[in-house]
Amino acid sequence: MKKIKLAVLASGGGTNLQAIIDKIESGKLSAEIRVVISNNSKAFALERARKHNIKDVHLSHKMFETKDKFDEKLLEILKENKIDLVVLAGYMKILSPKVIRAYKNRMINIHPALLPHFGGTGMYGIHVHEAVIKSGVKVTGVTVHLVDEIYDHGAIIIQKCVPVEDSDTPESLAERVLKVEHQLYSEAIGLFAEEKIEVKGNRVYIKK
Question: Cβ(110)–Cβ(142) under 8 Å?
């Protein structure tokens, strides 16, 4: 089986990135991270990349006169590295329709809730878990989905439930959800690596 070539985009600590690296290095995921890109020069995700001899790139909109120039550079980097799948792992910038269309059905994101619930504008990080607890639901979870031009909207690839305990705080719930994220993201990437993903319209089907 050939290794699927990944670009990982991250803005912060990169714990999902690390989980993917660990799966690859253990031989449990047939993939190769060709480049890690961050809009934040101080993101620890870039340091994680360097520690594992993965190309790291700081690429911010602030470095370019226009959004189009940024898009051109990002697409150039992805093309140069022959990227099969773009993996958003805590990337805190919205990508343009031009970039998303260039990698249609080949760009994925992970969300710390069961979409379509608790998604959309403002629903990121601890804010998601605060909203979950405030709502009183007894189950939350993790969603890996295709990226389209609407925030947190693309077709769902895979989901896993996480129970909400009566004693949960947003922080304790976030910690348990994150552990599931680390497992589920590699699982979803593995489905692409094994060519088991089929997209029809706005639905994802997993081949047996």
Answer: yes
Same fold across 1-103 and 109-208: yes
DSSP letter (8 states) at residue 142: E
**Which tens digit of pLDDT belongs to each residue from 4-35?**
999 999 999 999 999 999 999 999 999 999 99
Distance CA 184, CA 187 (A): 5
From 61, 111, 117, 153, active-site residue: 111
Annotation marks residue 61 as catalytic: no
Q: What is the pTM of this model?
A: 0.95
Class (C level, CATH) for 1-103: alpha beta
Q: Does domain 109-208 have CATH number 3.40.50.170?
A: yes
Q: Look at residue 1 and tell me whether its pLDDT is greater than 80.
A: no
In 3D, which of 57, 32, 63 has the Cα closest to residue 45?
Answer: 57
